[in-house]
């Protein structure tokens, strides 16, 4: 969308500011960060908001938090906002895509998400309501949350982001074991699939009759040669 279109939406936003302040004042005081017995509260960041750059318009970015309103605010992204768009350089907000007071957990074929709208207090200039979703994706290797755009559509006035993290994984952490040169889930495996991938499919060797031969229960070739002798070659 052009900067001129953003200016039009900013003007429309000013007209509805009184109604929005009323809605914001009634935002949920308590929001449960649990859904189907899984607690997503470790992803709440009380120090700073999550930020992800627009894929369509690189000079814009979206800011949000998890299970709380945004920390950052300005006149166009007031206290009580759940998802806002702003210019990257000036940090001037241009749109609200969700009020935290409307936040609800749900799920679809893509997984669990939190959905927010502007409750028709800040309608989309193309019709309908503004909408945002925060999808949660399990990634045991993501010790620091990874933020990405899942769907971005200015004409539908919606933004769906995804936060990938170990804290989005329910139940016991998955473990992986190399079986038939493939990493598969196994209770006795490694806690990190990347570590499994690093060794899976790589030939292993055992020292037999002073020679390094391939063996499923062997070691790396370098470890084998260290035992069998530096001049011993594989057969």
Short description:
The chain has 235 residues and is an alpha+beta fold. Helices cover 16% and strands 34% of the residues.
Task: Walk me through what this model shows.
The chain is of the alpha+beta class and 235 residues long. Helices cover 16% and strands 34% of the residues. The protein has four helices and 15 strands. It has a five-stranded mixed sheet with strand order 7-8-9-11-10, with no helix packed on it. Strands 3-4-5-6 form a four-stranded antiparallel sheet. It has a two-stranded antiparallel sheet with strand order 1-2. Mean pLDDT is 83; it is low at 7-23 and 231-235.
List the keywords.
235 residues; alpha+beta; 5-stranded mixed beta sheet; 4-stranded antiparallel beta sheet; 15 strands; 16% helix; elongated; disordered C terminus
* Main sheet overview: 5 strands, mixed
Overall average pLDDT: 83
Strand order of the largest sheet: 7-8-9-11-10
Silhouette: elongated
Q: What fraction of the residues are assigned to beta strands by DSSP? A: 25-35%
How many DSSP E strands?
Answer: 15
Report how far apart the termini are.
64 Å
Radius of gyration: 25 Å
Give me the number of helical elements: 4
The amount of helix comes to 10-25%
Low-confidence stretches: 7-23, 231-235
- Listing every helix as H and every strand as E from the N terminus to the C terminus, the arrangement reads HHEEEEEEEEEEEEEHEEH
